[in-house]
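Handout, section B. The chain below has 656 residues.
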Amino acid sequence: MKKRFQNFKLTGPSFNGWMKLLLIGLIFSICTTILLQFAMYFQTWGRFDQTNDIGQAFQAAFRFMERPQAYFSVLVGLILFIFIIVLINHLFIGIATYWVLVIVAFIAEYMKMKARNEPILYSDLSEVTAVGGLTQMVDKTLLFGAIVTILVLIVIVVGLETWVRKKRTSRFAESVHGMMFQKMGERLLVLCASVVLLGSPFLASADSNRALLEHFGYQWQSVNTGDDTMVNGPVMTFVSNIATVIMREPAGYSAKSMAKLDQKYEKYAAEINKTRTNNLAGQTVITLLSESLTDPNKVDALKYTGTDVYKNINQIKKNAVMSGTMLSSGYGGGTANIEYMTLAGFPLNTYAPEMVVPYTQLVPFADKVPTLPGLFDKREVIHPYVGTFYNRRDAYKKMAIQKFYTTDGQKYKYPASYAGTLGDSGYTADKNSYRYLLKKIAKSSNKDSQFLQLMTMQNHMPYNPGEYGKNNYKVISPTLSDTAREQIETYITGVHYTDVATKNLIAKLDRLQRPVTLIFYGDHWPGVFTFVDPNKQQERSHETDYFIYQNKAAQEQSKQNLNKHERAYASPSDFPALALQATNSKVSPLFALQTKIVKELPAFANYQRNRFVDNNGHQLSTKDLTKQQKMLLHDLKLVQYDLSSGNHYLKNDFIK
């Protein structure tokens, strides 16, 4: 046995070979850190050192290298480089693989920052299955440049690998050969060590990861992940968001306290139901998420020539049974998060800061996911685009959705006959998705209750200049580059088409005999208004419009006069309770709690934690709430925690 161990030798790189390999990796990881930070700074948002001047952006990226946070990014890059080289054990193929990953990361970081001023987060990795849809949203010039760069890399690698094999006795070839592992022993050891180092953040708790990062000077920016990555770098921000904390346990959480809450809201539901006469039978309720829709007339400093692009929607708001301003958690993106709130009735504001995408971090692991659609007999979602984003297909199954129609659907495919676009746009026109929505209503049974959700795509980024052909809208202020001005003009034109299509939709709903209640809202601002700082103008840039419209049949069935300004400012999480109120429908204890929230709490400002907005548009903090309001907020947190990550003490009847 002793002789066998004496004959076993770990033959790896020589000391000089190791030093050369580490030096190459160090140089590459430094370059990677600078490049990724450049993607953060070469932006027009105006946060920290962001600029559209290439030279200044690179200077800011080099200055970032003086910060201790940069050391962490360099270390991660070095470990990743070593892992790839040792795994492949071919120097030039390994180098090419490393740089392909860096190029992909750079494009992803740059495009997401450009669209939303947010870096890539761990939850975004669920989007890799939607690569076909994602590439349509990437700047074509940048994508082409990346493809050319990768192809050049491949050609160079093939040439170098071929040359080294032919010239094995040359000094250069021997030097390359000296950096590689000749036997498996030490190679496996290094591989295991690098896997442990790279993989440990994925297994550790959020608090453990935070403690590790703080050794490298991590300064958590709790309000905005974009700010976090400007201060700490995209690698640190990514690691800080790996471990999911859905919600931290509220004070006083126990089986006893939840039993009391159960009784409290069962009693409150009974009080509400004394005056509610409906149970949704024979009715259709629609949530219509209008992609990136906001009123251009309310964008500070923006002036344009042409007719009012929002006149029809503003008129519909006046005729609606309820309307106002919605407080969005997103800017330039985050659609699925807003959508989750409208279905589940829980604000993002009260979850843990690490829980950024409920569809990927919460829904798959929650014991129960009670939602508004779960109250209906028929439950369908329509999305005239690919359905792989945000884990929607799997999430919907747990959220009581029966059918999900998408352009890439197999069992439930969005029909091509309703997918027509406007001009050269790559997205289905709103007027056509509205046609399909009306078809679904027409096919409904007279007795069954029906829930429909439509998520439009017409006004999704990018806003390519001239994509609608002749443009009747011209931006006259502020002064912008030609590209930025033309993109805004494209967006405004798209809003005009949405405005006209929505007017026609309402007219057709009015002619239906079936009671229909429509909850219409813009999910977030587009990222096209680059002259607006969404942090300095946080309130305005997170405000979109909403209305709840009922056709004559629905109004006659509900038999109530609603105060249309009751929720002048609303959180998306208010919509389930407002829908049940509009339809005069009976509620479970859960929806009784949500109804009480709507009636007694100001709206959650989901773009900032512990912030609210009252009916007059005034900002409030938690400390400004009354004692009764604070108790109600605590009730919500207890219920939200119990249903999401707690011990599920609440009885099944609470959510039925």
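Note. The chain has a mean pLDDT of 88. Compare this with the example in section A.
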